[in-house]
Amino acid sequence: MSTQQGSEIFSAIVAAPFGAMGIRSEDACVRELVYLPPHFHEKAPQDALSEQACEQVLRYFDDPDFVFSLPLLDKGSAFQRRVWDAISAIPRGAVRTYGQLAKEIGSAPRAVGQACGANWYPLIIPCHRVTAAGGLGGFSNHDDENGFHLSVKRWLLKHEGVSQAPWQQQSIWP
Question: Which residue from 6, 49, 50, 151 has the least number of CB within 10 angstroms?
Fold first, then answer.
């Protein structure tokens, strides 16, 4: 049986409503979570931590109020970690704009957007809750309105109960 090209870098791949989630572990910590398109097949966890991560990801897909409790590899600059902490404080069902977060931490919206795109732990650090002032914005360093990543962002926001709101000038739902 051959390994699906690209899947070898993951410690596990779990099916998701929008495709799949790749999980990478290293040194008893989660190293990275990755949104994967539907052509990626599930991959059995290679270790206990990856199994735990799979279980927690699936619990989130069942319950958007689920709180992750996984050890994360310490990554990112001090600025990125400040942005990620601010993102982590956004409650489920709410969103903030890049500008609102920038004002909160004393930075610029573009820098906040770049830190969002550098997030190693999507779902755990819910960068999908950060939008542009006039619409959905980008996601995971992608901004193709009809592309895979923005479809994931739409799904996550809908899953968490975010409905169309006044801060949107365009619909974020397909």
Answer: 6
Return the bridge partners of 33, or none.
23
pLDDT at 134: 79
Query: 78-159 has which fold?
Result: Arc Repressor Mutant, subunit A (1.10.10)
- Where the chain has pLDDT below 70, the residues are 1-5, 138, 140-146, 164-174
Quote the CA–CA distance of 154 and 136 in Å, as a whole number: 8
Dihedral sign for Cα 86, 155, 16, 93, please: positive
Strands 19-26 and 12-16: antiparallel
**Domain span(s) for CATH 1.10.10.10 in the chain:** 78-159
Among the listed residues 119, 146, 143, 121, the one whose alpha carbon sits nearest the alpha carbon of residue 131: 143
By annotation, the residues acting in catalysis are 127
The pTM (predicted TM-score) of the whole model is 0.86
Which helix (H) or strand (E) segment holds residue 32: the answer is strand 29-36
Rounded Cα distance between 78 and 86, Å, is 13
Res 169: pLDDT: 37
Cα–Cα distances (Å) from 67 to 41, 46, 57, 59, 143, in that order, read 26, 23, 10, 9, 28
CA distances from 115 to 7, 21, 59 (A): 26, 20, 26
Q: In whole angstroms, what is the distance from residue 69 CA to residue 161 CA?
A: 22
